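Hello Y.,

Per our agreement to keep a running log of every chain we model this quarter, I'm adding this entry. I've kept the format consistent with earlier entries: sequence first, then predicted structure.
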Amino acid sequence: QVQLVESGGGLVQPGGSLRLSCAASGGRLDRYAYAWFRQVPGNEREAVSCIWLEEGFSFYTNAVKGRFILERDRFRNTIFLQMNNLRPEDTAVYFCAATLNRPYCSDSLYNTGVTGWDTWGQGTQVTVSA
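Predicted structure for the entry above:
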């Protein structure tokens, strides 16, 4: 069973950038797809983006397309979320997730949401504020 540890959250001004990391360990890591979700208190967990680790296929939801970039380091089994041009509405706890059912990582990610993602990290806080 894969285990996930996020890092890299913090406080940033609007228009700034942050880079989140998701370190994976345990199991056949290249058989998984990995995703980033975010959650604001009182709201459902919202999908942000996902990637197939081995093939590198990546998908983004409309809210972050063109601003956020997913990167993978297969040697370090780490997924990075480069967040640029951050907005106050990006403020949330960001969670890394993994699934062996890789088709859940697709351009339907926003609609399918947390369905199928069965391994989660502890989350890291991102705050965008002046």
